[in-house]
Amino acid sequence: MAKRENYNELYLFMQVARDGSFTAAARRLGLAQSGISRSVRELEERLGVQLLVRTTRRLSLTQAGEQLYQATESAFDALDSGLATLAHYRETPSGTVRINASQHAIDKCLLPKLAIFKQRYPDIRLELMNESRFVNIITERFDAGVRLGPEVGQGMVAVRITPDMEMAVVGTPEHLRRYGFPQTPADLVAHPCIGYQFADGGLYQWELIQDGKSVTHRPEGQWAFSDSYMEAEAARLGLGLAYVPVELVANDLERGTLIRVLQRFSLRMDGLFLYYPHRNVSPALRAVIDTLKI
């Protein structure tokens, strides 16, 4: 491997050549003239060529010195330009941010809030990957993930990005005419209910509140999905009652295509949280966090 040049000596030589004087270079750099002179002399000795012609009145470059000066000036100017580009990145975040989230989170939170990046951070690329299962964001190369609630694994930071989420039991008018209007959570056993199935095969037990206590209902029915959007769509098709975030069916409730039941028993769940490793937060991810958090 070739020996690397002493770039400090090259830089000092360039400054002396640019100023045409050891004294002027020393004054501008805030260094001792003797130290600069010694460094340039050592550079000449190592290269085996004379770079400067020193007289009592003036300092001039030899042919070799002129060639080295042109090379060093070009190289250090390129380095300065590169460092200036890094400063630009600090001021204007750029790069790719990959986020794992459910379709619900993307549609109702991430996309509306991050749409301003089109104008504010045009150099940031956002990859919003729709997936309901809880993934290891580090091993699967995500910068962040979104989930309900603040509980995350060790070494992760969780930041709230939505308020608490209100759940709603909904069904079509036709379904309720056929099966009746449930008055208490216990009445749900008479209804086909649409299930939410986790990635491990487990079924979400509907959590409701009765007399200040938590009660659960295991949905029994023909249909189960791994996405709340599909639960809501199945309810619209009259396939059973669904227990979903109320914001997913707000328009249906307003139009009367779905009807809400058991409202006073429905749960308010922890809202959505963005979670990410506490280390190595890039400027681009920091911009995402600051935009999403509430």
Beta-strand percent range = 15-25%
- DSSP strand tally: 15
Low-pLDDT residue intervals, each spanning 5 or more residues: none
Overall outline:
rod-shaped
The overall pLDDT, averaged over residues, is 89
Give the end-to-end Cα distance, rounded to a whole number of Å. Answer: 54 Å
Computed over alpha carbons, the radius of gyration is: 34 Å
Largest sheet: 5 strands, mixed
Count of runs of 4 or more consecutive helical residues: 10
Oligomer: single chain
The SS-based structural class is: alpha+beta
Q: Strand sequence of the main sheet, in spatial order?
A: 4-3-5-15-6
Strand/helix succession: HHHEEHEHHEEEEHEEEEHEHEEEH
Helical coverage, percent range = 25-40%
Question: Can you walk through the features of this model?
Answer:
With 294 residues, the protein is of the alpha+beta class. Helix content is 38%, strand content 22%. The protein contains ten helices and 15 strands. It has helices at residues 7-19, 22-29, 33-47, 63-91, 103-114, 117-120, 173-179, 228-236, 250-255, 283-292; strands spanning 52-54, 59-61, 95-101, 124-130, 144-148, 156-160, 165-171, 195-196, 206-210, 213-217, 224-225, 242-245, 259-261, 268-269, 272-277. The strands form five sheets. Strands 4-3-5-15-6 form a five-stranded mixed sheet, covered by helices on one side. Strands 7, 12, 13 and 14 form a four-stranded antiparallel sheet that branches. Strands 1-2 form a two-stranded antiparallel sheet. Strand 1 (52-54) and strand 2 form a beta hairpin. The longest helix is centred in the N-terminal third of the chain and has 29 residues, at 63-91. The chain is rod-shaped, with a radius of gyration of 34 Å. The two termini are 54 Å apart. The mean pLDDT is 89.
